[in-house]
Amino acid sequence: NTDNKDAAWKVISYFQSEEFLKGYLEKGYSLPITNYMDGKIDKSKTGRLADFSLQDYESVYPTPPAVNLQGDDYRTVLWNVVMGYVEIEDAINDLNTRYNAALDADVASGTTKRLIIADYDPLNPSSGTATYSTN
Predict the structure, then answer these.
(1) Is 128 in the same domain as 85?
(2) Which of 27, 73, 128, 132 has the smallest number of CB atoms closer than 10 Å to its CB?
């Protein structure tokens, strides 16, 4: 909340502008996460970060929905697998069951929407066709 909404929006717009991002990326402060910006920068200016350029199979994965999960989250369950407290197959089955139940409950209550990517390819996560469903 601010009294200077127009000025705040100008600042946000500047930091998201191609001009700013190009300079930021070329100075090696970060790596581009889109093919668009990867194609706009001069990689000879990024130093050794150029070695970590985007590959054809890399992209930004969809953000998982926040759900009201009952029980331990995946990080805790993964740790328990690593420590040998839980078998991997049991952990996967448990997580699938609980996360799907939480998603179903949140979709039914209207607190989230189900994202469906009909032609999803994990090696090209941004190229699928995304639709939202409330079912």
Answers:
(1) yes
(2) 132
Domain that holds residue 123: 74-133
In a domain, 58, yes or no: no
Tokens representing residue 119 in the block = 């032609």
How many domains, in total, are found in the chain? 2
Both tokens of 42, joined, read: 């001069």
Cα dihedral 90, 93, 94, 98 in deg (nearest 10): 180
pLDDT in tens, 32-58: 888 889 899 998 998 888 888 877 777
Q: Pick the closest to residue 114 from 92, 94, 99, 97 (CA basis).
A: 99
Q: And the tokens for 52?
A: 């970590």
Whether this prediction's pTM lies above 0.85 is answered by no
Cα 104 to Cα 134: distance, rounded to the nearest angstrom: 10
